[in-house]
Amino acid sequence: MLLTVICAATYSQTNMGSLIPLTWFKVFTTAFLLYFVSHLHRDKFYYYHNLHISKKALLLSALATDVLLYIAALFIVHEIAPPIAP
Asked: pLDDT by residue for the chain (86 residues), tens digit each?
């Protein structure tokens, strides 16, 4: 969430040209964080395993939710506070 808010705030302060670098930054940091969490806490997914939710499904749902929130945040920022033209 914090990364999404930072990217949306940066997008609101810059022009449309910053959208591609911000999106790539978001993709790489999200991938790194999901990899880090999946390996750091690989022994702590028993609760979800007992609910018959695989680690892959859990991480994909987290990724999908994060991407949807990112797109919604950028859309809201673009509609409410369009980027400032220099």
From this structure: 888 888 888 877 776 778 888 889 888 998 898 888 888 887 887 778 788 888 888 889 988 999 899 889 888 888 887 656 55
pTM, rounded to two decimals: 0.76
Distance CA 13, CA 24 (A): 18
Query: Which residue pairs, CB below 8 angstroms and at least 24 apart, start in 67-70?
Result: 69/1, 69/4, 70/4, 70/7, 70/8, 70/26
| Residue of 71, 58, 9, 1 whose CA lies nearest to 30 | 1
